[in-house]
Automatic annotation (TrEMBL):
<dbReference type="InterPro" id="IPR015353">
    <property type="entry name" value="Rubisco_LSMT_subst-bd"/>
</dbReference>
<keyword id="KW-0489">Methyltransferase</keyword>
<dbReference type="InterPro" id="IPR050600">
    <property type="entry name" value="SETD3_SETD6_MTase"/>
</dbReference>
<dbReference type="InterPro" id="IPR001214">
    <property type="entry name" value="SET_dom"/>
</dbReference>
<feature type="domain" description="SET">
    <location>
        <begin position="173"/>
        <end position="391"/>
    </location>
</feature>
<dbReference type="InterPro" id="IPR046341">
    <property type="entry name" value="SET_dom_sf"/>
</dbReference>
<dbReference type="GO" id="GO:0016279">
    <property type="term" value="F:protein-lysine N-methyltransferase activity"/>
</dbReference>
<keyword id="KW-0808">Transferase</keyword>
<dbReference type="GO" id="GO:0032259">
    <property type="term" value="P:methylation"/>
</dbReference>
<dbReference type="Pfam" id="PF09273">
    <property type="entry name" value="Rubis-subs-bind"/>
</dbReference>
<protein>
    <recommendedName>
        <fullName>SET domain-containing protein</fullName>
    </recommendedName>
</protein>
<keyword id="KW-0949">S-adenosyl-L-methionine</keyword>
<dbReference type="InterPro" id="IPR036464">
    <property type="entry name" value="Rubisco_LSMT_subst-bd_sf"/>
</dbReference>
């Protein structure tokens, strides 16, 4: 798992003659700067906005101020997938649950950074704005709350020993480890936790990092080997340390499973079930890479240094187990020296991933306390499972390296489109259309299924239109443009029908091994996504034909008369639409 990063904005507090103001600014080093800048300009904003805090404000003014901050913050916090699909839900007023939570927490941190003790006349406004943001976060939490079913029959004895060991070594937690149905072990809040509360605090002294390798006997050997990364050294260290009965981290290793059950451990039947999917290729490439890495190290290290690398500890099976451990449980942590390192965090590994997490900002050691803190970005009630985000990963990545498919609709569960994106002339502003990669997701996630949209991503459609006609400038309902629409939709439908055929028939995933079930579940999801693309393309072609029909009706009305069309259903062909032709 990786630490979550705050979106690109300068956390700046401005001052002027009238007092304090909040500054929202888009970083120029944001890789999506040009596209976000275009969106900001379309909404009437620049890349930097200073929002003054008045000495007194009515509830309406507070609401308007917050709405302005939200509009800017949402765009600043957009990631690549959200920007590519551009799905703004007018009903909820947000791009995605991830984007909304990150935006609200950005605004909360900006308001919190204001020096309240010095604000005097603006203090009430500051409090009102702070309360308004907190209320928004609470509303978000209530809308996205998931009830976890705790299995109290499962006794987490070893996990309790680990927590007690952590507390003896300076850890602090407001969580308990329990067995969650459908998710395995998870972290449950033992009390009501509010925004900003620290759910878990781990001292650096019990974090497993590369410093431990440097102090071990194997570093004398590994340090002299060219091209051996710190991650590889940690991998080899953990393979041996888990057998050490005197290890400082014995309680941690005792809680680790004998098998991690990630995609890297898929058996033959599961691999066969994945035929026709990109997940099959991803797993095979990953395993091939790991096998090559293993063969470069063993049996040479065991033969040359059997005392340091005992052969019984360094089999292929144990190497794969250690790889799964580090893939599924490690975190990127910025330590006090400012360096980002891959670490194992005892206790924190029980925090499960969620598409609607409670914790999104973590991964940097507090230099004042020398601890790693996990603060809440939204409230978590007592008895509720406390979750974090492992990162904005596709479903295939989560299966391969973590061994699960996320609950709910994963907006990052996209299918990349293999298109040779060459230089296509673009007459209009290309800042929103010069994507170098393209992708699709289930069209049920889209809000716009009208003509020129069809529930499909605009960047993909715009690129395909420019391939057909580089001079097309506007999406107008003229015959030439409609012919291009038909050609684009027919090509897409043909491509995805071929993909659907490659996926084969639906398989029965009931009463089978865990890996086959997971493989069948993923393949069914891929089939559902591909089918939705085909359906949307077909519906889009029907929209085009419907518009052709309207043009014919208008011709008849204008040249022959109403009597010839009295039998038509004008709910399907409303007269007000005729003026578009």
């Amino acid at each position: 798992m990786e630490s979550a990063e705050l979106c690109s904005s300068d956390k700046t507090v401005g001052t002027d003659d009238d007092g304090y103001s909040i500054v929202l600014e888009l970083h120029r080093d944001d890789p999506l700067f040009d596209k976000k800048k275009k969106l900001l300009h379309d909404k009437g904003f620049g890349v930097k906005k200073q929002i003054p805090l008045q000495s007194s404000s009515s509830p309406d003014l507070i609401s308007k101020t917050l709405e302005t901050m939200l509009q800017i913050g949402r765009i600043i916090c957009l990631d690549e997938v959200e920007l590519y699909f551009g799905e703004f839900d007018t009903q909820s007023g947000s791009y995605s649950t991830r984007n909304e939570l990150e935006t609200l927490n950005l605004l909360f941190s900006l308001v919190e950074s204001l020096p309240a003790s010095q604000m005097h006349e603006q203090l009430n406004v500051w409090k009102d704005l702070q309360s308004a943001i907190i209320n928004k976060i609470h509303e978000f939490g209530n809308q996205n709350k998931v009830d976890a079913k705790i299995d109290r029959n499962y006794i987490c004895e070893k996990e309790k020993f680990l927590v007690q060991w952590g507390e003896r070594n300076g850890a602090r937690t407001k969580l308990e480890i329990a067995y969650v149905e459908g998710a395995g072990r998870g972290a449950i809040a033992v009390e009501d936790l509010n925004i900003g509360d620290i759910a878990l605090e781990i001292p650096v002294s019990i974090i497993i990092s590369e410093e431990l390798v440097y102090k071990s006997d194997m570093y004398i050997i590994l340090g002299k080997m060219d091209g051996t990364s710190s991650e590889t050294m940690l991998l080899l260290w953990s393979m041996k340390e888990k057998h050490n009965c005197e290890s400082k981290f014995k309680n941690y290793f005792d809680t680790l499973p004998a098998e991690f059950n990630t995609g890297l451990s898929f058996g033959v039947h599961a691999i066969m079930a994945l035929e026709g999917t990109l997940l099959l290729e991803e797993i095979m490439q990953a395993k091939e890479h790991l096998r090559m890495q293993y063969d470069e190290l063993f049996p040479a290290l065991c033969n040359d240094y059997p005392d340091i690398f005992p052969p019984e500890f360094y089999t292929w099976e144990q190497f794969l187990w250690a790889c799964e451990l580090w893939y599924s449980n490690s975190m990127k942590v910025m330590l006090a020296d400012g360096k980002l390192r891959t670490c194992l965090i005892p206790i924190a590994g029980f925090l499960n991933h969620s598409l609607n997490p409670h914790i999104v900002r973590y991964g940097k050691v507090d230099s004042a306390t020398n601890t790693l803190k996990f603060p809440l970005s939204r409230s978590c009630s007592a008895g509720e499972e406390c979750c974090l985000s492992y990162g904005n990963y596709s479903t295939s990545h989560l299966i391969t390296f973590y061994g699960f498919s996320p609950q709910g609709e994963n907006p990052y569960g996209v299918i990349p489109i293999d298109i040779d994106v060459g230089q296509v002339d673009c007459i209009e502003d290309c800042s929103m259309s010069n994507w170098t990669t393209h992708m699709v997701w289930g069209t049920w996630l889209s809000n716009n299924h009208n003509i020129f949209h069809y529930g499909l991503p605009s960047p993909l459609l715009d690129y395909l239109r420019r391939v057909c006609n580089p001079t097309q400038q506007e999406k107008t309902l003229v015959p030439a443009n409609l012919e291009i629409e038909l050609e684009v939709l027919e090509d897409l439908e043909s491509t995805f029908r071929g993909m659907l055929e490659n996926l084969g028939d639906t398989l029965d995933g009931e009463n089978t091994r865990w890996d086959v079930k997971l493989a069948v579940e993923f393949k069914d999801l891929q089939r559902r996504i591909v089918s939705s693309i085909i359906t949307s393309c077909s519906a889009g072609r029907n929209i085009k034909l419907s518009h052709d029909g309207k043009r014919l009706i208008k011709f008849i009305i204008c040249n022959i008369g109403w009597s010839c069309v009295t039998g038509l259903d004008f709910a399907v062909y409303p007269v007000q639409h005729f003026d578009n032709f």
